[in-house]
Amino acid sequence: MNQDAFIVPPGSKVSLRKNYDPAYQDGYHEKAEAAQELQANIQQLAKYQDTLYAQNTYALLIIFQAMDAAGKDSTIKHVMSGVNPQGFQVFSFKAPSDEELDHDYLWRATKALPERGRIGIFNRSYYEETLVVRVHPELLRKQNLPLTYKSDQIWKQRFEEINNFEKYLVNNGVVVLKFFLNVSKDEQKKRFLERIKYPDKNWKFSVNDVRERAFWDDYMEAYEEVFQHTSTDYAPWYIIPANRKWYTRLVVSDIICSKLQQLNLKYPTVSEEHHQELLKAKNILEQEV
After folding, report:
1. pLDDT tens figures, 263-286
2. CA–CA separation, 111 vs 120, rounded Å?
3. Contact indicator for 178, 237 with CB cutoff of 8 Å
4. Which residues contact 39 (CB under 8 A, 6 or more apart)?
5. Under a CB-based contact definition with an 8 Å cutoff, are residues 67 and 183 in contact?
6. Which of 25, 38, 165, 259 has the CA that lies 20 to 30 A from 107?
7. 148 pLDDT exceeds 70?
8. Beta strands of the chain (E only): which ranges?
9. Separation in Å, CA 156 to CA 126, 152, 225
């Protein structure tokens, strides 16, 4: 799979409509074929996770951003279905609480970062502070920011802060993978209607989802700005086609496996002293009656 096709080159201007097709499937036509490869990736990911946990040097932070109904939850559920829950955690970031509003906007994300040896997923993230807050300026006014922060430069400033934050993470062994699940407006409408039609999906739907849909173009512009200014060599953005969930899951799993493979993970080697202790323990066990 050509993963470079999904990467936003650092500093490049992005047009989601012109440059990224939500229905792209890279020659895959059979869902069954993709499902077979996905299963192989899931098994490989389980092996990488075990080594990641044992080595205890790196952590992996996976960020998912998308419009509503793009398939974030189902992608996480399927791709991570084979990992050990002991080394895996998911945080979903919704509207900030009063306590969170009394801190800087990166505070709640910092608290949720994965420890070394673990995989952490942010279902939405601190990038909401450059997206929903930008589309809805009234939310920014609730953050009680200093007057010097409330200028036209705030978004440029936040992009810089986020880049510095991610650079800090990478320098300290936290690998950052950022996925935008790119669903089309028509496909979103189709999925909304399904959630309304089928009773077992009603719980997924909120009238507010339709209200936010009215700001679609504003969100697209905000996302394009985010990609241009925060896709970096050390933490690039991947724009993943999301009109076909089976293909979305395959691409995401393939990229995660490739990134873990690049870390050259290995199980720790024991000292000679520890090795001698193992031999003694083996001898004791073998002599048991």
Report:
1. 999 998 888 888 888 999 999 999
2. 12
3. yes
4. none
5. yes
6. 259
7. no
8. 59-66, 88-92, 119-123, 174-182, 237-241
9. 15, 8, 10
